[in-house]
Amino acid sequence: MSDEMLQTGAVRLGVIGNGRVGSAIARLALHAGHQVQVSGSGTPDDVALVARFTLPGVGVADAAQIAAWADLVVIAIALKRFATLDPEIFDGRIVIDVMNYWAPLDGYVAGFSDPESTSEVVQERLGRARVVRTLNHIGYHELEADSRPPGDPERRAVALAGNDEAAVAAVAKFVDSIGFDPVVAGDLRSAAAFAPGTPIFDGWYDAGDMADELQLFANRTRQEDPAWS
Fold it and tell me: What is the pLDDT along the chain (229 residues), one digit of tens a residue?
């Protein structure tokens, strides 16, 4: 991130995927004062036309251009399309992984048979990217509806996990800016605590309850696997 952006808190956010989740995150980021660019699966002209009506004020670029420009890159595409991305364009970038494995919709996706390990697989494929898992356990319709300013008693918490502490801190700051309390779960293995089918994935938590639920998950996991820490 640039020195100016570190001081102001504004970031350049790139969103790969202009579907419902990606668009909701882009609108929240724009409202929070961030610069935003998106890419989509259609032609640049088609994506630009859609963005003009659904994402006014957001720029349009391809995935490689977004990765080169952005401070934070959100990948918000169907998991079955993930393999089409060039891993090298993400080298050194902070990548926010919001993808979930939906077998009934995506079918079998090689390497993603275990839904609890998706972000670890994403990290492995992207190599030198700095992957942070978050915003996957909140519905696209809830992202904008549940966003609240700091200190609001109804502010919702969002869990984060990542192997790079500085990257997690940067993403936590972004999550806070778009209206949610960030609660860090741990490294990418800890993202299993908010994978599809977990209480966190299916529920609504404030920051205190989120921290408690993450701790319960960690305690249960250590009992089942003493090597896990």
Answer: 544 444 457 899 999 998 899 999 999 999 999 999 998 766 566 566 566 656 667 788 999 999 999 999 999 998 888 989 999 999 999 999 999 987 766 666 777 765 556 899 999 999 999 999 999 999 999 999 999 999 999 999 999 999 999 999 999 999 999 999 999 999 999 999 999 989 999 999 999 999 999 999 999 888 887 766 6
Tell which residue, 134, 132, 115, has the closest CA to residue 196.
Answer: 115
Q: Residue 49 falls within a domain, yes or no?
A: yes
Q: Which amino acid is at 221?
A: T
Structural domain including 69 reads: 3-224
d(CA 38, CA 26): 8
List the beta strands (DSSP E) in 140-196: 157-162, 181-186
- Domain total in the chain: 1
Phi, psi of 29 (to 5 degrees): -65, -45
State the Cα–Cα distance between residues 173 and 124, nearest whole angstrom: 25
3-state SS class at 203? coil
Any domain includes 219: yes
CB atoms inside a 10 Å sphere around CB 208: 11
- What does the chain come to in residues? 229
